Amino acid sequence: MADPVLERFALKLHRNRLADPAARYGDDLKSILSLARGAAAKAEIASWPRYAPTPLIELPGLARAAGISRLWYKDEGGRFGLGSFKALGGAYAVYRYLAGEVTKRTGMALPAAADLIAGQHRNVVRQIAVATATDGNHGRSVAWGAGLFGARAVIYIHATVSEGRRAAIAAYGAEVVRIAGNYDDSVHQVAADAKRAGWCVISDTSYPGYRDIPCDVMQGYTVMTEEVMTQLPNGVRPTHAFIQGGVGGLAAAVLAPLWESWGAREAHGRPRFVAVEPDRADCLYVSAVAGQPTKSAGDLETLMAGLAAGEVSLAAWDILARGCDDFLVIPDAAAVQAMRLLAQGIGGDRPVVGGEAGVGGLAGLLAAAADPAMRTTLGLDADASVLVIGSEGDTDTALYEKIVGRSGDDVRRAAARPA
Fold this sequence. Notes:
By secondary structure, this protein is an alpha/beta fold. It folds into 2 domains: 12-84 and 215-416, Rossmann fold (3-Layer(aba) Sandwich), CATH 3.40.50; 86-213, 3-Layer(aba) Sandwich (Rossmann fold), CATH 3.40.50. It is 44% helix and 13% strand. The protein has 17 helices and 11 strands. The strands form 2 sheets. The protein has a 7-stranded mixed β-sheet with strand order 1-10-9-8-11-3-2, with helices on both faces. Strands 6-5-4-7 form a 4-stranded parallel β-sheet, sandwiched between helices. β5, α7 and β6 form a beta-alpha-beta unit. The radius of gyration is 20 Å and the shape is globular. The relative contact order is 0.18.
């Protein structure tokens, strides 16, 4: 199969002048995310049933098509059977909250996750309800975590969340509440209802007065980044990372460990970091342009549903404002191209199932690679090596098949065939 000719799209790029390539990861940022707390998160998450590192897949065919040296895709589609990286974050934050409540209510030492899973504190935990707003994957993680540890979950979804995503959340025993409006409306609604009902909100979005739980969510995500650093070939560090945006939690959870572990970009440490967003949900981009957290003017109606956020997470923004080098905005059609190319297995690559939001970073890379001026601006030359995070698989199976033309199961069967 000949290398594909990548499509050209209308793109927007903002270079972040606040990001100092010589800066190291500061102690103040460690209060948000740190390697030390990441190790603690890894110790707990590794004790959960079915924990296993997800694969880091090298895609030389797509790398060649993009005109770069190497491309790595961290495939989160199999994470705990939930289909996305968010299985790490929401459930970990649920554990942290429940463990703290056990200590507060009993005076006992903080229990391990394994203790809650074993039901050692069920009389306390079953009285507790956790709640969140979601486009799908985060709510699934919170619902799963609540069930795993023995608590009740109430999950709010907005008007355009698909029925398939609603059913996937309900399958974990959660009460699912659908509201009118968009994702940001559901965030505000669950906060108000939880206050009246006495539920704990487990949100991945940090806002004024609400920071600790979203930091726990992001700290859970960093387990994925720690896996990446051990899975890369010995001594190899990507020159670039293209990571999808949303509220910023995933991007911050990838950037922070790489930055703290590898040091300043100027010293061939951390990679050049590019956040990628849909053109109708570009809160990180507009915040970067304004120099402060700013609401997107877009209607949030994007195919990349998991990235349909209009307001940044403030804790994530503190990291991205100082360490994200570039903010890139792409149309939905770029995600469609990336999904299809992944499923085809270009140039001998293993076919991979990547969902609409999950391919955001890859879509940004391929779109930038097809634009000569942007290639130069971003330094995407023949020696560039790029890390992307495949943050979800086919979490909406019907939509995936409609876009790609084959089911996710068909693609996985093709990937399993001998070369």
